[in-house]
Amino acid sequence: MRWMLLSLIASSALAQAPLPELKFQDPPNFYRSGSYPPADFSSNEVNASLQVYPFQRFTGDVQHAFTSTLMRDLIDPRYRETNVAPGAKLDATAVQGARMVYRARFIEVVAGQPHERMRMVIVADGAIAIVDAQAVSMMSWQRVLQPLNAFASTLHVVAGEPEPEFTTQQGAAGRVIAGLYMGFARKYMTDLQRGPAYGYYTNALQYYLFSADGRVYRHYDELKVPGNDPARFDYSGAQREDPVNSGRYAIRGDSIYVRMGTQQQPESFVFRMPSGGSIQIGSVNYKRQ
C-alpha cells in the first residue's frame, strides 16, 4: 500500500509538471500572424511560411511515429500535407536543451506542383514541439533559407514555469485590465470549395474582451458589448458557442497569463499589463475602446 501511494503521488506530480518551453527569435523578413497556436510566420518576400507548435505531452516512440507519419495529425489543417512525394529525407539534428531532434525534408505535391517542406520534431521531458516550414517552389525555398537558418540557430529549450491559478478573482489588477481592446490582425480565410488547407490571409479587426474577474473572449470583425461594459457581456454563452476563443486570465506581477481554447485545441500566451490604454499581444497592438 505504501509503494502504491508513493507511485500515485509521483504520477500526480509528473502529470502536473509544467511543459518545457521552446524559445526562439522571429525569422527576419517574416510577418508574425496574430493567431496562435501555432506561432505563424509568413515571408514578406515570397510565398513561404513557418509554424512553431508549442510543446505538448507525447507518449510512445517519437522516432517511429515521425518516420511513419511525419506527425501529420498534429499539424494545423491549414498546413497539413495531403500528398507527399516519395523520397522524404530523414535525419537528426540538435537544439540546445532538447533530448533529441528529428528532421524531415520532403516534397508535397499540390495541384501537380511540388511544394518544398521541412519539419522538425523536438523532444524534451516527455513532450514534443514541432517546427514546420514550407514554400511553394524551390526558388522561394532558396530565398527564405537564410532567414530560416537564422531562426533555427536561435532555437533552445528551457524549463517551463507552472501556470498561475486561473480560478481566483483578480481584484484591483483585474479592474485595470478590464475592457474591450481592438487591433488589426491577420485572419485566415478558407477556400470553401477546396477545403481548410487552401485559403488566404487578410487583415481584419480583432477584439479581446477582458472582465474584471478573470474571464476573456476573443472575436474577429465585430464584438458587441452591452453598454461597452465588460461585466454585462455573456461570457458563459460565448464559452458554449465559441469555446476555442474563450478562456480565463491571471495576473502575476506585471504580466497577464491567458489560457483559452479546448482540451483538444488549447492555447496559452503571456503579455504585459496595459500601458497608455494599449496591450501588445504578439506583434499586434490592441487599443482600449
Q: What can you see in these coordinates?
A:
By secondary structure, the chain is α+β, with helices and mostly antiparallel strands. The chain has 2 domains: 19-158, Protein Transport Mog1p, Chain A (3-Layer(aba) Sandwich); 171-288, Beta Barrel (Lipocalin). The chain is built from 5 helices and 17 strands. The protein has an 8-stranded antiparallel sheet. Strands 2-3-4-8-7-6-5 form a 7-stranded antiparallel sheet, with helices on both faces. Strand 10 and strand 11 (195-210) form a beta hairpin. 28% of the residues are buried.
How many E-type strands? 17
User: Would you identify the CATH H-level superfamily of the largest domain?
Assistant: Mog1/PsbP, alpha/beta/alpha sandwich
SSE string, helices as H and strands as E? HEEEEHEEEEHEHEEEHEEEEE
Give the overall average pLDDT: 89
Shape: globular
Reading off the top of the CATH hierarchy, the class of the largest domain is best stated as Alpha Beta
Going by CATH, the architecture of the largest domain would be 3-Layer(aba) Sandwich
Question: Which sequence of strands runs across the widest sheet?
Answer: 15-14-13-12-11-10-17-16
Radius of gyration: 21 Å
- The helix tally amounts to 5
Compute the number of structural domains: 2
The third-level CATH topology of the largest domain is: Protein Transport Mog1p, Chain A
Percent of residues in β-strands: 35-45%
Largest sheet: 8 strands, antiparallel
Q: Return the structural class.
A: alpha+beta
Low-confidence stretches: 3-15
For the record, give the distance between the C-alpha atoms at the N and C termini, rounded to a whole number. 59 Å
Helix content: 10-25%
